[in-house]
Write a structure and sequence with these properties.
With 100 residues, the protein is an all-beta fold. It is 0% helix and 62% strand. The chain has a four-stranded mixed β-sheet, with no helix packed on it. It has a four-stranded antiparallel β-sheet with strand order 3-2-5-6, with no helix packed on it. It is globular, with a radius of gyration of 13 Å. The mean pLDDT is 94.
């Protein structure tokens, strides 16, 4: 199994967020809001089979839906942020993101 760490980072303001892995819902939360002091809204950890997976992130409150193909092995860190023009940006890392 792989452990996917998802950090909902910048740009979330009372947003609903739904995350699906291979069309199965793995996270849903209402009123997700970034704590501007640390640049983090929520942290989610999901165990998934190693190998190729497709992650779908939906932020209906901002009209955003994005699909991200991932190759999972061991620990994978995914940072998600919403830009000022309501686009979803992602960042992949093999190391944890730092928050104060």
């Amino acid at each position: 199994m792989a452990l996917l760490h998802i950090a909902l980072q910048e740009g979330f303001v009372k947003d609903s967020v739904i995350i699906r892995a291979d069309q199965q819902e793995v996270f849903q939360q209402q009123t997700v809001t970034t704590r501007t002091q640390i640049g983090l809204a929520e942290w989610v950890e999901i165990n998934l089979p190693e190998g190729q997976t497709t992650l779908e992130i939906a932020v209906p409150s901002k009209g955003i839906t994005q699909t991200i193909p991932l190759q999972l092995s061991g620990n994978v860190y995914l940072g998600l942020s919403i830009t000022p023009d309501s686009r979803l940006e992602h960042q992949l890392s093999k190391e944890a993101f730092g928050y104060l």
